[in-house]
Specification:
The complex is a heterotrimer of chains A (about 300), B (about 325) and C (about 350). Chain A has helices at about 1-30, 45-50, 60-70, 85-120, 125-140, 145-155, 170-200, 200-210, 215-250, 255-265, 270-300. Chain A is mainly α. Chain B is built from 13 helices and no strands. In chain C, α5 crosses α7 (about 160-175). Chain C starts with 5 loop residues before the first strand and ends with a helix. The chains are: A mainly alpha (about 300), B mainly alpha (about 325), C alpha/beta (about 350).
Chain lengths: ~300, ~325, ~350
């Protein structure tokens, strides 16, 4: 188990470097560059800029320099935000995205697990149909439609909540709700399907034949098997939070990392793009490792080799 | 003789699935809604033009009307800030949104199935390398890939066949339209990863079964085995997954349009219309609500249909 | 009721399932009686309703789609079908215990053996953790798991199929139940293991004085164990008799067919093994006459039109057949000629 974790941790860094390399290649494939604007720069100015950023060197030298810096944890300065290092920018903006993302995921987990469990236990009841239709709605309503509708209702019509911006807890309610709706829906569906499948299994019949009450059957016998699909969804869910936060950050004017990332790509701010990609890919791989390890706690049959 | 038996069995399998699908009320509801929407976006724009004279891109000549008007009998869904009829734009946008769904899914289907089937069939080291590539692509934000694809192949460097396709399917030879077609392919190119995994898993479990051995023993080549024997047998999960890919790429397109990377005016997709609507949310809420809700209803129906298909094709999971 | 030594009386039990293809009468008017300390064998092909009968006794039928529509189940004077869900739970696992066919899937793969064993006695006997643990070890030893104190902390996947069935038996007998229902306890096991498990059940039955219902599709399994046998077909009791009598002088063509299809190494060597032709009928669409008519070797016109009567051969022997008496007489002659040989 420990050696499994160590081996997986060791592979994260090379994988992240590989991802950075591919990303770098992709950025270089695209025509144009960060200094290119609508108006054509004088040739001399362009040459100075190219020299300053080492763009006049052959590509392999540029790549080598970049990689040797990255391995030392230095992504350099942003090209767009003059005088700020990539690391600073990430450190400043990531907490906003993380706060919303983590709150949204836990909200989704709480509501999704609860609703999915009740729906499974009362299969074909009106609660089942109602909550599953809601879940389908959650999956089908794009967050850039859902978020603004929430703003419209709760901020502009009812004046209950602030429409946007970072601030106290009240400011968090709408963005977190918007972001978590899809995950809530997905987790509710996964929980219901997983539990129904488990509740039909032979060992649940055995538990019933033992005279256990439905509570014990659910919480001691069925919950683990029913949770397996939910846990495996956690990895992709966290990866998907990135795209989700971009919209939420835009709709609610929150200075998170998602928007910074999109802007960096559009601006050809290569160091910043690479820095964020590396940061996120390490984060995703770390989360996947946590998911794999928690599998082991859930299911004793899983062996780590 | 043996082939005949196979055919009959195959046909009844699909017929059974169809019967089960028809018994699923939510799936039937989804099919009906989708049919209505398909009819509406096909004949709707022409009908509106014939009845009212509004087209999706007609800006009123009277300057007083070049502004956002609330829904009325003349403009069922109101107008946008250029005075264009939102109903006509929603119907026109539906064409592009659904085309995104269909074309991008087809692209992702072709790539995903070929890639997954090859990896699964060849196995061993090749499979390992191919799947690690998928893993790496998974960790690269797809937005980055789409942006790169759009900028590499965009503008003057648009491949000829995309221009040809946009002219054949879309009519007028228009640079804006061929950019939209480029977007379809870019979206397809980023959404095949999961499909490849699904197909590979299926092929892995199928390839050691007797009928494949038999085919190999009679001298059928590798490609023949993959595409004649393995892929058809893995079709169920592929169809299920493809149905669920359609709404997901539509969402992705909407997301890109929302970021200003997708469909540009005068063209419209549900995503770009909704994104325009958000700007005026506080004062002209109908500009968001109509395209947004139309899109949500469509995705809702597609998802129900996809769920129904899964239950119909996979009787084991049908019972709940 | 209970004073006459009857532990379980099932009368006119009907359990139906509503499916897409219509109503499946899985159990359609089953009656039997089991005395204390007795062993009853229930024999039939898959789909004959033998498992559903016993799940109905335990009130373990999932509803919907299943439903007990008629009949009574009286356990030790208690009308089981009239009890509340909570009252039934007090009987399950405590007074009636069950062993299932597939030991690979019947134990919870996510929980330790100790947890699964201990929860029964903690629930029903009010054991403390320590008592339950010691009792679980004792039970495991009793079913022949030698290193019980080590293995009790293992998970089901660390046990072989035979060992898991032993664990299941230990679990079922933990609370010293009055009735043990064993639903095909050996079907999923290797032949050598089968014999061991049957021996174990037999041994424990005599040591603990438990009444047993043994469900199987294999007449060979019940032959050495059951005091009396019920033969089920298409949700109905086709024949009911003391074991010895059923084997010697069956009064139903179906039973005769089953008996003929048991390989008997003692004689008829080289002869091809008999097989009942055809397949069990679709219980959702039964023909009006005898459900066995299409497969019966002595079928007559009446079999296809009229449902057969439940003929009383003697007090303990009944057979569902238009020609029950004829078949019984034939069997008697055959038995006599066998004995003469």
């Amino acid at each position: 188990m420990l050696s499994f974790i160590i081996r997986r941790l060791l592979i994260i860094l090379p994988m992240a470097l590989l991802v950075v390399t591919v990303t770098w290649g992709l950025i270089r494939l695209a025509p144009g560059s960060f200094y290119a604007t609508d108006r054509q720069l004088p040739a001399a100015v362009e040459a100075t800029i190219r020299q300053k950023y080492g763009l006049d060197q052959p590509w392999y030298k540029q790549y080598g320099m970049m990689m040797s810096n990255i391995i030392r944890g230095d992504f350099g300065d942003s090209l767009k935000y003059q005088g700020q290092t990539v690391n600073e920018i990430i450190r400043r903006h990531a907490p906003y995205s993380a706060t919303i993302g983590i709150l949204a995921y836990f909200l989704a987990l709480a509501v999704g697990l609860g609703a999915g469990t009740i729906a499974a236990l009362r299969q074909n009841s009106s609660f089942d149909y109602g909550s599953m239709s809601f879940a389908m709605l959650g999956l089908s309503l794009p967050s850039f439609v859902f978020g603004p509708i929430l703003v419209l209702v709760f901020a502009f019509w009812l004046y209950w909540l602030p429409p946007a911006r970072w601030g106290g807890l009240v400011n968090l309610i709408l963005p977190v709700l918007t972001l978590s709706s899809v995950y809530m829906a997905y987790i509710a569906r996964l929980t219901r399907a997983g539990l129904l499948e488990t509740l039909r299994s032979d060992y649940i019949r055995t538990a019933r034949a033992k005279g256990l009450d439905e509570r014990t059957i659910l919480f001691r016998h069925a919950i683990r098997g029913g949770l397996v699909p939910v846990v495996s969804y956690t990895g992709p869910a966290l990866a998907g939070l990135l795209a989700g936060t971009v919209i939420v950050e835009k709709v609610f004017a929150i200075p998170g990392l998602g928007n910074i990332f999109i802007q960096s790509v559009l601006n050809r701010d290569e160091p910043l793009t690479l820095g964020i990609v590396a940061f996120l890919s390490i984060l995703i791989m770390a989360f996947n490792l946590v998911v794999d390890v928690s599998y082991g706690f859930l299911d004793p049959r899983i062996r780590y080799e | 003789m043996a082939e005949n038996v196979e055919l009959i069995k195959g046909a009844s399998l699909w017929r059974d699935a169809w019967r089960r699908l028809l018994r699923n009320k939510l799936a039937v509801f989804g099919m009906i809604v989708i049919a209505i929407i398909l009819v509406a976006i096909t004949i709707g724009p022409a009908l509106i033009y014939w009845l009212t004279g509004y087209a999706y891109d007609s800006i009123p000549t009277n300057n007083d009307l070049v502004r956002s008007l609330p829904p009325s009998w003349g403009h069922l869904m109101g107008t946008d800030d250029a005075g264009r009829d939102i109903f006509a734009r929603v119907l026109q946008g539906g064409r592009i949104s659904l085309m995104v769904g269909i074309i991008s899914t087809t692209v992702s289907l072709i790539i995903g199935v070929s890639y997954g089937a090859t990896a699964g069939y060849l196995g061993g080291a090749i499979d390992n390398v191919m799947m690690r590539i998928v893993d790496i692509l998974y960790s690269i934000p797809y937005i980055l890939i789409v942006i790169v694809l759009l900028s590499v192949f965009g503008g003057p460097s648009t491949p000829q066949w995309i221009k040809w396709l946009s002219e054949t399917l879309g009519g007028a030879g228009n640079q804006g339209l061929s950019q939209i077609f480029l977007l379809f392919f870019a979206l397809g190119l980023v959404s095949w990863l999961t499909m490849a995994r699904v197909v590979r898993g299926q092929i892995l479990s199928l390839k050691n079964q007797e009928f494949v051995m038999a085919a190999r023993a009679t001298g059928v080549g590798t490609l023949g085995i993959i595409f004649r024997h393995l892929v058809p047998n893995a079709l169920g999960p592929v169809i299920i997954y493809a149905t669920l890919t359609v709404p997901s790429v539509m969402l992705t397109e909407a997301f890109l349009s929302f970021l200003g990377l997708g469909v540009q005016a005068p063209f419209a997709s549900w995503g770009s219309l909704a994104s325009d609507g958000i700007k005026n949310l506080a004062i002209f809420p109908w500009q968001l609500i109509f395209p947004g809700v139309t899109m949500a209803i469509t995705l809702f129906s597609l998802n129900f249909l996809g769920d129904g298909l899964r239950d119909a094709l996979d009787p084991q999971t049908r019972k709940f | 009721m209970s004073s006459n030594g009857t532990i379980l009386a099932v009368n006119g039990l009907k359990t139906y399932f509503t499916t897409e293809d219509g109503v499946v009468k899985a159990v359609d008017g089953i009656s039997f009686e089991l005395k204390k300390g007795e062993t009853l064998g229930i024999v039939g092909e898959s789909g004959s309703g033998k498992s559903v009968t016993n799940l109905s006794v335990m009130r373990l039928i999932q509803e919907p789609p299943g439903k007990i529509v008629d009949g009574s189940v009286v356990f030790d004077g208690i009308d089981v079908l009239a009890l509340t869900a909570e009252e039934v739970r007090k009987i399950r696992g405590r007074r009636i215990a069950m062993i299932f066919q597939d030991p690979m899937t019947s134990l919870n793969p996510f929980l330790k053996i100790s947890t699964q064993l201990m929860e029964v006695t903690r629930l029903h006997l009010g054991h403390t953790k320590e008592q339950a643990y010691q009792h679980a070890i004792k039970m495991l030893k009793m079913v022949g798991i030698s290193d019980a104190s080590d293995r009790i902390n293992g998970y089901p996947h660390e046990f072989s199929g035979g060992m898991r069935q032993r664990v299941m038996i230990a679990m079922a007998l933990s609370c010293d139940p009055e009735l043990l229902i064993a639903d095909e306890p050996t079907t999923a096991l290797d032949v050598t293991i089968q014999a061991q498990i049957l021996e174990l059940i037999k041994d424990l039955r005599s040591r603990m004085g438990t009444s047993v219902i043994l469900i199987t599709h294999d007449l060979g399994v019940v032959a050495g164990m059951a005091d009396k046998i019920i033969v089920m077909y298409a949700g109905k009791v086709f024949e009911q008799a003391p074991t010895r009598e059923l084997f010697a002088t069956p009064a139903n063509p179906y039973t005769k067919g089953l008996l003929k299809s048991v390989p008997d190494p003692a004689h008829e060597q080289g002869k091809e093994l008999y097989q009942i032709p055809g397949l069990p009928p679709d219980v959702a669409h039964l023909p009006p006459g005898c459900p066995f008519a299409e497969r019966c070797d002595r079928v007559a016109d009446i079999c296809r039109t009229a449902f057969p009567p439940f003929v009383r051969i003697n007090d303990n022997h009944h057979s569902l057949c238009h020609f029950a008496v004829d078949v019984y007489e034939e069997s008697k002659t055959e038995a006599a000629s066998r004995a003469a040989r």
